[in-house]
Amino acid sequence: MHLLNADLHCHSNVSDGTLSPAALAERAHAGGVELWSLTDHDEIGGQARAREAALDLGMDYLTGTEISVSFAGQTVHIVGLGFDADDEQLAQGLEHTRAGRRVRALQMAEGLAQVGIPGAFEGALQYVGNPELISRTHFARFLVESKVCNDTSEVFRKYLVEGKPGYVPHRWATLQDAVGWITNAGGLAIVAHPARYRFTANEEFALFTEFKALGGRGVEVVTGSHSTAEAARYADIAVEFDLLASRGSDFHSPEESHMDLGTLPPLPGHLTPVWDALEARILQPA
Length: 286
Ligand code: AMP
Ligand code: MN
Ligand code: MN
Ligand code: MN
Known about the structure:
alpha/beta; 5-stranded mixed beta sheet; 3-stranded parallel beta sheet; binds adenosine monophosphate; binds manganese (II) ion
C-alpha cells in the first residue's frame, strides 16, 4: 500500500498553521489525499473538527499530533498517529508541554527589543489562533509583516535560532514521556523530519536506539522538510532500525509552505508504511 496518497503531517491555526482544521481538510482532499492526519504541535484541540471534516469529504482520517521533545541539547519532534483522542494522560502531557510557551515568548520579545525590535510579543499574538500555543512561527510572521525581514526563513536565520537575539532555550517533554503518552493512548510514535536536526552521527544513533527501546515505531522518510537525498538516507535508517516509514508534507500555510498537501513523492517501495500498522486505527467515512 505504499502508493496510497497519505499525508500524515500538517498544521492548522490550532498551532502554527494559518488555516482552520476544516479548511485544511478541504485542501488535503482537493490535493488528492486519501488518508489524512492533522498533527498540530503539542495540541489535539483541532482533532474533532479535522476528523469530522475529513469524513464528510469521504477521506480516511488518523488522529495526530507533533510533540516537542528535548534530546541531547536539541529540540526533536515526535509525531503521534492513531491514538485515542480522549486519553487523559496524553491530554495532560500535551498541556504540560504547552505550558511555558507564553513566558518563553515574553523572553523572546525582550531579546528582540534589545536589538531594536519593540512590541514583538503583542505583534506575534496577532497571528496566534490558540493562546496556549504561541510559537516562533508567529514571531516570524510578525517580523515579515512589519518588514524587518523578507520571509520567515530569513527571520529564523537572523533572529530565532540558537545564538540569535530572539532565541530562548526551552525544556520540552522527554523522549520517554512523548513516546509513552502516544503509545499508551493506542497510537504509534514517529521521529519527525530527522534531517532537520543537527546531531552528530553518535547522537543520531543514540536518538534512534533510545526511541526504539522506548517503543517508538516509525520515522518520517518522505516529508516537505527532506530533499531527495535526505529521504534516501532515512529510508536506509528505517531499514537499519526496523522502523515503519511515514509520509507528510508538514504544510503550514499557502504563503509559506513549499510543499502542498498530497503532493509529495511516494514512499520507497521496499519500506513498510506506518499506515499498514495502523489499519485498525483509521477512521473511515460511514
Ligand atoms: P517552536 O515550537 O515555537 O520552537 O516553533 C517551531 C516551529 O518553527 C516549527 O514547527 C516550524 O514551523 C518553524 N520553523 C522552525 N525552523 C524554521 C525555519 N528555519 N524556517 C521557517 N520556519 C521554521
Ligand atoms: Mn510548525
Ligand atoms: Mn516539526
Ligand atoms: Mn510539523
